């Protein structure tokens, strides 16, 4: 996967709070809930509802967001394509983590069962 340094820098500087409303709108428009979205975020990052809200209000960048996160050890089981990129081929850790989150939100919005989204080894 050939992602440019400019793309990586743009990803790092993007704030979680700028993307979160899009995630929420996407899942709610497909009949899923904010609680389910938070469950998916918590699975990937270890953040509870209170921490998610703090990160939104603090307008943290994705770089800070994932530095603070404890990424789920099963996150490597997230595979497939998102935004034209094959997740398992993304070499830059931050970009891969952001795409993991994007993929989980997509799966939630598409109606995938939670036990399938929250991968187990």
Automatic annotation (TrEMBL):
Domain of life: Bacteria
Gene3D superfamilies linked: uncharacterized protein sp1917 domain
Pfam families linked to this entry: DUF2200
Protein name as annotated: DUF2200 domain-containing protein
């Amino acid at each position: 996967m050939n992602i440019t340094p400019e793309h990586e820098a743009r990803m790092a500087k993007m704030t979680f709070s700028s993307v979160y409303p899009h995630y929420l709108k996407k899942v709610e428009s497909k009949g899923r809930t904010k609680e389910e979205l938070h469950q998916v975020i918590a699975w990937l990052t270890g953040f509870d509802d209170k921490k998610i809200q703090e990160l939104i209000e603090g307008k943290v960048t994705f770089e800070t967001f994932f530095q603070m996160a404890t990424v789920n050890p099963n996150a490597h089981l997230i595979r497939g394509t998102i935004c034209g990129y094959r997740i398992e081929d993304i070499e830059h850790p931050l970009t891969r983590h952001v795409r993991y989150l994007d993929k989980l939100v997509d799966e939630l919005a598409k109606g995938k069962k939670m036990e399938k989204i929250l991968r187990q080894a």
